[in-house]
């Protein structure tokens, strides 16, 4: 068992990179770091964020080696963990993912519906490339992957890298559980034990208890029935109006099944008409972020580089960063921590496709995640999940085979798309917009 670790952050030019670097430095007591490397395929983004993070690390932890590079061999040689969060096509393509479907009266979203399908068709090659670099230069390393759309990326790595040490993760349940803890007056989401099942961005909590085993669902359901997921505490990452609206909408998601608590992403599938009516086709979430988070992070990086000091800097490191460090600790020190991860079903959900990539509680140790059995699921969720997982599998098959037919089927099957003709119109425009990223479709 190593006592100090080498971590590479792939997508080192990501808006989340400084927060994760900060979180790694703040957790050295439980996760000792020997070296942090940043890797990106965009030299300009990597250069600016890399230099800012280099100054940050050298000032606070001069004993930690730090580098940033666009050279895969330098980035991936002799590492223990690769923390991946790439965005193939950047926000320029996310904006198209969101705006093209809206032109046809269909939900425009980063990871859901046609936008998520388009993003998935771009992401698969990028993530597989990172896995191959890692295995070429550090065969024993683990990849902890945030790169979205996690559902499609997870299905692609299941099919195309079945033996790779990659764990696909999502921090949405982590964020919502933080809200649950706030609603309940608990100090932390870790004061709860949860049972949850679904696909990524498509799941439900079925049981939430405190560490003494007391049922916390009744108190939560009472709050959610009236206020959705809105709570007293403002969350830095979710102060944007679009996030406030999302948390409010949880009330209407809860109405569909008062036996469970929903993942917020279900709103795009249950209320697509409402979402389209409340979207601005000329100013979507991608636009909000470019003038928001992306500008804030890069302005802060320029501030640090100009002053050659990070002492006045403030980068946010919230649940997103904590979660991935928790996961690295669980693997490094065999902690058997209980975490919601995206894993092959294999019976965890007894009456659901064994090969589906599902999001369920797992015990995590040195050999990776072990899913807990969530039992049988009701017809409502089973029907929804079967439709959605078929979409995700068709996208991966379309990417593998270069199949226009299967991608058209995937769009037609999505609960967010009203007809095969609308699906085809959106598909043809997405093909043109993604000419530099997707495999050729025949
Ligand atoms: N799984 C989750 O719950 C979760 C939560 C938050 C963010 N994310 C994901 O994390 C990723 C990063 O988000 P962001 O907003 O910081 O994105 P960003 O656009 O700010 O940064 C992404 C970085 O990835 C780099 N990149 C793109 N393709 C690459 C490739 N093939 N190889 C190496 N680098 C590449 C880009 O140059 C860019 O610097 C996105 O995929 C986002 O959806 C996931
Ligand atoms: O619109 P964005 O880019 O702000 O958020 C899209 C992502 O939303 C979720 O991640 C949240 C996360 O839940 C929260 O803990 C915090 O870290 O903010 C993140 C970004 O808002 C979702 O899980 C991701 O998959 C999305 O990419
Ligand atoms: Mn997510």
From TrEMBL:
Gene Ontology process terms (BP): carbohydrate metabolic process
GO molecular function: hydrolase activity, hydrolyzing O-glycosyl compounds; metal ion binding; oxidoreductase activity, acting on the CH-OH group of donors, NAD or NADP as acceptor
InterPro entries noted in UniProt: GlycHydrolase_4_CS (IPR019802), Glyco_hydro_4 (IPR001088), Glyco_hydro_4_C (IPR022616), Lactate_DH/Glyco_Ohase_4_C (IPR015955), NAD(P)-bd_dom_sf (IPR036291)
Name of protein: 6-phospho-alpha-glucosidase
Residues annotated as signal peptide: none
Cofactor(s) demanded: NAD(+)
UniProt similarity note: Belongs to the glycosyl hydrolase 4 family.
Taxonomic lineage of the native organism: Bacteria, Pseudomonadati, Pseudomonadota, Gammaproteobacteria, Enterobacterales
Active-site residues from the entry: 171 (proton donor), 265 (proton acceptor)
Residues covered by the Glycosyl hydrolase family 4 C-terminal domain: 196-417
Alphabetic keyword roster: Cobalt, Glycosidase, Hydrolase, Iron, Manganese, Metal-binding, NAD, Nickel
CDD domains, per database record: GH4_GlvA_pagL_like (cd05298)
Cofactor note: Binds 1 NAD(+) per subunit.
């Amino acid at each position: 068992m190593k006592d100090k670790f080498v971590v590479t952050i792939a997508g080192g030019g990501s808006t989340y990179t400084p927060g994760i670097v900060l979180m790694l430095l703040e957790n050295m007591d439980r996760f000792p770091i020997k070296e942090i490397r940043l890797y990106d395929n965009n030299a300009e983004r990597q250069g600016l964020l890399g230099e800012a993070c280099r100054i940050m690390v050298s000032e606070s932890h001069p004993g930690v080696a730090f580098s940033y590079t666009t050279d895969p061999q330098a980035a991936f040689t002799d590492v223990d963990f690769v923390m991946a969060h790439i965005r193939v096509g950047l926000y320029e393509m996310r904006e198209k993912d969101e705006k093209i479907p809206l032109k046809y009266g269909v939900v425009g979203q980063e990871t859901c519906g046609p936008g998520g399908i388009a993003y998935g068709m771009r992401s698969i090659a990028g993530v597989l490339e990172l896995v191959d670099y890692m295995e070429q230069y550090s065969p024993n390393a683990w990849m902890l992957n945030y790169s979205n759309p996690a559902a499609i990326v997870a299905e692609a790595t299941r099919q195309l890298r079945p033996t790779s040490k990659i764990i696909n993760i999502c921090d949405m349940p982590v964020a919502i559980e933080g809200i649950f803890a706030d609603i309940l007056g608990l100090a932390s989401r870790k004061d709860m034990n949860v049972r949850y099942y679904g696909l990524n961005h498509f799941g439900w909590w079925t049981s939430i208890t405190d560490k003494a085993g007391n049922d916390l669902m009744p108190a939560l359901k009472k709050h959610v029935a009236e206020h959705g997921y809105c709570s007293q505490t403002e969350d830095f990452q979710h102060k944007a109006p679009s996030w406030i609206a999302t948390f409010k909408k949880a009330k209407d998601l809860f109405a569909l099944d008062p036996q469970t608590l929903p993942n917020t992403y279900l709103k795009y599938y249950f209320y697509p008409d409402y979402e389209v009516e409340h979207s601005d086709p000329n100013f979507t979430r991608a636009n909000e972020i470019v003038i928001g988070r992306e500008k804030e992070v890069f302005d802060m990086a320029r501030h640090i580089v100009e002053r050659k000091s990070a002492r006045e800097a403030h980068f946010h490191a919230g649940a997103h960063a904590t979660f991935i460090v928790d996961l690295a600790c669980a693997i490094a020190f065999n902690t058997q921590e209980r975490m919601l991860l995206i894993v092959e079903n294999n019976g965890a959900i007894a009456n659901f496709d064994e090969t589906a990539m599902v999001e369920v509680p797992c015990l995590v140790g040195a050999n990776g995640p072990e899913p807990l059995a969530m039992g049988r699921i009701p017809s409502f969720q089973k029907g929804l999940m079967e439709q959605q997982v078929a979409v995700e599998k068709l996208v991966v098959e379309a990417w593998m085979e270069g199949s226009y037919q299967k991608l058209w089927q995937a769009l037609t099957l999505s609960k967010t798309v009203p007809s095969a003709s609308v699906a085809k119109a959106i598909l043809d425009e997405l093909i043109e917009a993604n000419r530099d990223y997707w495999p050729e479709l025949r």
